[in-house]
Amino acid sequence: MLSVSPPMKKMLKLTGIVFGIIFGWYGITKLLFFWGMSHYVPPPVSVSSNVAATKVWQPYITSIGTLSAINGVDISAEVPGIVSEIHFTSGQVVNKGDVLVVLDTSVEQAQLKFDQAKLKLAQINYDRDLVLLKKNVVSQAKVDTDIAELQETSASVEADQAKIRQKTITSPFGGNIGIRQIDIGQYLQAGTTMVTLQTLDPLYVQFTLPEQDLPDLYPQQTVDITVDLSGQKTTLRGTINAINSKVDQTTRNILVEATIPNKNRQLLPGMFALVTVWLKTEKNVIVLPETSISYSLHGDSVFIIKKEGKDSDGKPILNAYRQYVKVGERRGDQVAIVSGIQPGDQVVTSGQLKLQNGTHVVIDNSITL
Q: Whose C-alpha in 99, 164, 282, 362 is 20 to 30 A from the C-alpha of 155?
């Protein structure tokens, strides 16, 4: 049996004490770690919130429309001729009756003078024979012939004047002249377009709606049109002035026409417009900001903030819980909630990506997360 010397015994005891201290410290540290993890409370997550409120939304119908002028025409001549005068410039505003174009009338003017001379002679012959008839110098037949010649030459003069008027083209209504398409000295065939003339204020917008919407339509109904001007959406309000008297048999749609003011003349005929027809009925809906909705394949949801007691300082403890909702109509940055929440519920509007069910939150509406 081996014997251990006292110095060796002392060394072994000292080594055991050192290892005991090491393993004891490791065990205590591990126990403290697990205790801390089990009692760890994460700091609250900062979110912004909004209270679900009930608003009155007026329902509407949308469609695609085309703008057209109340009065619009391509100016052309009834008869052929050579352009001798142009009395307008491109883009000019004209009034009804203003002279726009004059075609060469030299031949018609010469014919008018010839027929006027014949008319004067016919009048002289008639007056003379009428006096002679009273003296029984000429017969009644001669006077009747004079009357016929007088009427014939008078009709010729009127025909010449009508031809001259046909070659003087005037504005049929007031409006804006387009771009000139003719030049001085140009020969025009009958019907050749010289320039377009459009009345720009107000304008018509024509659009179609399904026949099912016909009971909801009526004259003077409010409509809004939205057009894209210089890259910006512009909305103008008008009223329905006419509903077509029949439904298209091919599309089963009905044509509707509305009048839109255009005082600044920023709209032009032929432009595309998104039309909104406002209906009479109104409905109460729960409205939330669009940012409060989390969309996923599993369903749309929001986080509702609930008060669950108070902390040591007497402040309410706020926790967020996921709530699935049914989303309805969208208008701008707001969305209607059909079901899932009630008016007065406090809903998270930003910071949802940091949240899980029961997450402790603190509300800070001064920042956007």
A: 99
